[in-house]
Amino acid sequence: MLALGLLLNFAGIGLFCWLIFTLAVYALPFFVGLHVFMMALHGGAGILGAPLVGIAAGGMTLAIGQTAFAMTRSVITRAIVAALFAVPATLAGYQVVFAMSQLGVPSLAWREIFACLGAVFIGGTAWTRLTIFTETRPLNWGRAVGSDPQPVLTAAAHKQ
């Protein structure tokens, strides 16, 4: 029975850490969704309407950020959009790891080191999760964006 309790405790802590890590990576959409939820709740949307509006706002923030990142070709614009998502995730990651390290690390210096490493890893993960679905395209300086280098074959060309 003791072994089962230890195993379930370990699984619960792992699940809790995974949930906190995921929430820290999506800090900007979560913050926007929470802010819109609170505004809608105080505006009279009620218990059922406010969560729906908050979830929709958070999802739209994530979708708009990913779409803006995927649609633009400018490296500076991509870096700005990615930084908008990575900076809040980095700050949230620092706070989460610092709070979690207080449970088992007595030295303040080591807690700071762990918190800084956690911030770098979580910020990098947020950056990667935003950029992973975008496909890098080669820059063609001689052509307009979207022009096809080869003519499109029609059905009449296939019959010859």
List the helices and strands and how they pair.
Layout lengths: L1 H24 L1 H16 L3 H26 L3 H27 L6 H24 L23 H5 L1
Protein model, in words:
With 160 residues, the chain is mainly alpha-helical. The chain has one domain (19-135). The chain has helices at residues 2-25, 27-42, 46-71, 75-101, 108-131, 155-159. The longest helix has 27 residues, at 75-101. The termini are far apart. The model has no long low-confidence stretch (mean pLDDT 83).
Keywords, separated by commas or semicolons:
160 residues, mainly alpha, 6 helices, globular
Gist of the model:
This protein has about 160 residues and is an all-alpha fold. It is about 75% helix and about 0% strand. The protein has helices spanning about 1-25, 25-40, 45-70, 75-100, 110-130, 155-160.
What is the total domain count?
1
Q: Tell me what portion of residues adopts beta-strand conformation.
A: under 5%
Instruction: Report the major sheet.
Output: none
Tally of alpha and pi helices = 6
The tally of beta strands, per DSSP, is 0
